[in-house]
Amino acid sequence: MKLIANNRRGGAALAAVLIMIILIAAGSAIMVVSGRGQIKEAKDLPVIADPESSKPDESSSPDESSLPDDTSSEPEPETKLPEPARAANFQEIDFIKDDLATKNAMLLNVTKNEIVAGKNYTEKIYPASLTKIMTLIVAVENINDPSVEYKFTADKLAPLVEEKASVVGFLDGESIPFEDLLYGAVLVSGADATQGIASLVAGSEAKFVDMMNAKAEMLGLKNTHFVNTSGLHDDNHYSTCEDMAMLFAYALKNKMCRDVLSAATYTTVKTEQHPEGILLYSIVHSRFTGYWIDSEGAKYYVKGGKSGFTDEAGYALETFLEKNGETYIAINAMTPKEFGDEKCTMDNIAIYEKYLPKTK
Known about the structure:
The protein is of the alpha+beta class. The protein contains 10 helices and 12 strands. Helix 2 packs parallel to helix 5, helix 4 packs antiparallel against helix 5 (191-202) and helix 5 packs across helix 6. It is globular.
């Protein structure tokens, strides 16, 4: 009897539950139709996306607000460099009177952003290895992991030998840290170093060059275009003394770039191929060893810079120094190769000595 009674009570309960479900469903339907009873999601609970609905729609562009704040983002207007104005006491450099072999030259007061002196500084030049100033900038500003290393392979090094490019001397199978590549690219103008930089930062030289040209455009360099990372000659690889001086001034504002451009020596990491590392001597500092700039009877020393040479470009040199708390950049380019690198260096010194503003 108890069993039968319990079964009856269970059946009644089941019937009651079914009736309640029917009533709730009907009420919900009425609320949906009438627009009431909308449920707001809790603000403190994570939203779990449906796997299918979370797949990207390839036919539409992503919302710009969801893009990472990186180099692919649209540059802000203020990133463009202000064009330097001619100083009130601007002087035109007289190549003949000053016995200069260079064809294009400029002296920039970086502190005041004024062109102190110049000649043909807006004309097209082939920058040769001055290119590596841009390579340095793009590398430093875009590397995600500064501790990353690049492993050199014979197939990547072979073309550089064929092109007779200047190299640091890294060998097949050698793994070199990113920082060492920066110093190798600037101090001894190593094309092997720029190759490693491009691969680490962009995956290939072509993609890295795209970044270089994008940076030039973002900075407002109107007459500059790059084809490679090293400065090997190409008719479509060009700049001007004005653009290169603006770029150099920009690089000096970055501590890492300034440190590399100022270094006199640097020793690369010890490897199996080079147990003691490779001791690098700055080409620029070696050319200025024993020389100083005589201005108003005082001695000023070049603090760093970058040199360049190809048969087509001749010799080029860009350096900086400080006088009375102000920074100056001197650049001379397109010095015919028959004059040699020493004449190019003497011309750079002469530009400082003849055109640095007088304070007395």
